[in-house]
Fold each of these.
Amino acid sequence: MPSSSTLRIHELTSEERAVYATLKPEGLPQHVAIIMDGNGRWAGRRSLKRFLGHQRGARSVQLVTETASRIGLPWLTLYAFSLENNLRRPRAEVSFLMRLLKSYLESNLQRMMDNNVRMRYIGRTHDLPAEVQDKMSWVEDATARNTGTTLTLALNYGGRSELVDAFRKLAAEVRQKHTPLDHITEQDIHRHLYTAHMPDPDLLIRTSGELRISNFLLWQIAYAEIFVTERLWPDFSGIHLLEAIAAFQQRERRYGGLGEDCGEVEEDPEHIHIAAS
Ligand code: FPP
């Protein structure tokens, strides 16, 4: 539970406060990850060019981040640009997204500071244009001492390539330390992921209704609750984050164990005859 000094509930809108009032503060997720989808459809439904959808999507990034920081959410991770986007989208769209990211970082730094937001990145970011990487480092450094929400942008990110990168690093370590292979644990893999410094997401939100994971945080979402909304990303804002958290709090998380409505537990099932099927 966030300490009350980090909460800025009074800064929520009155509509947000009404949803927040229904939440159990002790049951807030620690880490929310979002697949931001639907920018193109948002534009298409208004007969606008796709880039305007991305521009509106950038506004949602800021709004959602600010609400997250006001409620003391420790970790927010947004899928902003996948490896597949980089390889498969028209060059003009990729280059627009890069310019949008740069301009977003420049123009939102002050708001991130005001909201005590710390900026981090995951993905093969070394393959992004140098001027984008410079801006990314500039914001990461400037926000490094902030203690509120850590906003992680997944950029040039793919879940499978993250696993490849992790296994390569682990293999090098195993070779150097002569570790017996049967000593490798899940924790060893976790240590080499881009996300080693953060807890796994408790809640994964996807906008625009698709029922897909799209190569996002494949290892980390093993036990995440998934919330899919038809709402397109440019129409998603802080109140929708709070609604998703309210739905999350209705879920019973079992991690493979038994739930409340699991039927009578048989103390000694030895005597039960298993009929041939
Ligand atoms: C999906 O919409 C979204 C993306 C490809 C990238 C997400 C980018 C943003 C939210 C804007 C920029 C972000 C930052 C951090 C400045 P889509 O184009 O796949 O939508 P569609 O499926 O409707 O075509």
Amino acid sequence: MLKPQTSATRELVRLDGLWRFALDSADVPEPWAAPLDTPLEAPVPASYNDLFTDPRIREHVGWAWYQRSVRVPRGWAGDRVIVRVDAATHEGVVYVDDVKVAEHVGGYLPFEADITEHVTPGAEFRLTIGVDNELTMETIPPGTIEVAADGRRVQRYFHDFYNYAGLARSVWLASRPAVHVDDVTVVTELEGTTGIVRVDTVVSADAAVRATLRDASGTVVGTADGASATIRVADATLWQPGAAYLYQLTLEALVDGEVVDEYALPVGIRTIEVRGAEFLINGEPFYFTGFGKHEDTAVRGKGHDDAYLVHDFQLMDWIGANSFRTAHYPYAEEVMEFADRHGIVVIDETPAVGLNLGLIGGITGAPKLATWSPGTIGDAAQAAHAQVLRELVARDKNHPSVVMWSITNEPASNEEGAREYFEPLVQLTRELDPSRPVTFVNVMMAPAGTDLVADLFDVICLNRYYGWYVNTGDLAAAEAGLETELRAWESLYGKPLIMTEYGADTMPGVHSVWDQPWSEEYQTAVLDMFHRVHDRVPALVGEQVWNFADFQTSAGIFRVDGNKKGVFTRDRKPKAAAHALRTRWTAMRDRA
Ligand code: GCB
């Protein structure tokens, strides 16, 4: 599904702003059937949880309703009218007046509906969107719902970030010609200095296709006719980490020689290859520096915000980072486009986090459950996981910034059943996109030798907490343990390794001359210890600190108003470690 845009043949109205808002209630069985009778208004985009002071809203489990009226521009007569929801967490349903027009499961990927038959150009309609935040053993990510003694439903989940819900990204009304460009896949290769741009276009009906590629100054550098086209660009300017260059591809659908639709998308010419234990971008070894991030800010929750987008990328540039992982779910498309334009490398992750019931059991002392079983993570979750992969690749396949798919974070890859669960999903990812490597993020409890799936992947990502969850406060033991482990991965697989999480919770303002956990000095010392080991292990091709910034989690005694492993605070102030990282990473950047 292509992102809606304005073009010579398309128009777009952003439906962001304040919507009427209400929790689901037995008193109003059909909230879409009339104007919502509610004192509450909620902004779109934003998670709803932290907006209101009422704890029943923050901890609500189930459906919530957003509603507003929308006028269809009168000039849209003759076109298709589309509603597009960039994300509804975790399940969404859309009504136009009394008619259900769309349903979608999965909280971090877009969906749309053609509503032409239900609306009139020039007239208003009532748009109602329901969002359901429930996580079960059949959803990705998974969760369980318990019923408390007082009858309240309580959502439990196995991942370490708050279960924010709502319409956290934009909602759009779009026009599109009846005969239109429906999809496009762009893959680039290099032959010497010539860029090869392969373009596969899908049109909605019988129409001819014309592709035109322009350079950044607008000069046409190539054209091609047909749904399957190849454009050769002599002396191509490459999309490089830290030096983005984007060509502009315009696709036209033609009927009887007349242009009926036009769709444009930026194209970065670059190659990705895994060779032995190296990760190559444009044939050059690439070393990832940066972070596992989150979409998380005060008040907005996971609500997308362009000011934070710009500021976060500024801070990543300041600190010398060249990459990040979209931990632990696909991010807003605005983020991906920004990375494309600014040359930031992205490991694009699905929301398959928390597929590890032993892990949570270990921490809470609750009985351990087998992760991969019919009653826990079984066929239904696997089907949901496959669907998320299809939708993620469909959405993000054309971003030059995306260099690799991460299909899951910290699954129970040491438990029986892991291989049966993952093998078809890796296969599916490769079929969906043969042009990018596939990785997964390995958890500390499944080291080399006990992990059952790592050989299926091109690159092995590791989250390790030596010096924090193990060897707490003992950095000498931590250093020895980390090096021994990395050497084992290196010799067993011979594949590139990336440290996708390492770090320590840190309260800004806590200081110590000793190795004291929670102090700013200790966070720096843990990172320094990892860096000494990273520099000694050749197969280690990247380091992404956990986390870019502090973020909110569910309530618990392991967290102090959220996870404090940020190098920046939640409001983006640097802790001492930020300065140390800046020294290391800017020096590495200057040497590259
Ligand atoms: C992890 C998880 C991440 C947590 C982190 C932590 O391994 O991947 O989601 O937030 O550890 O801080 O415990």
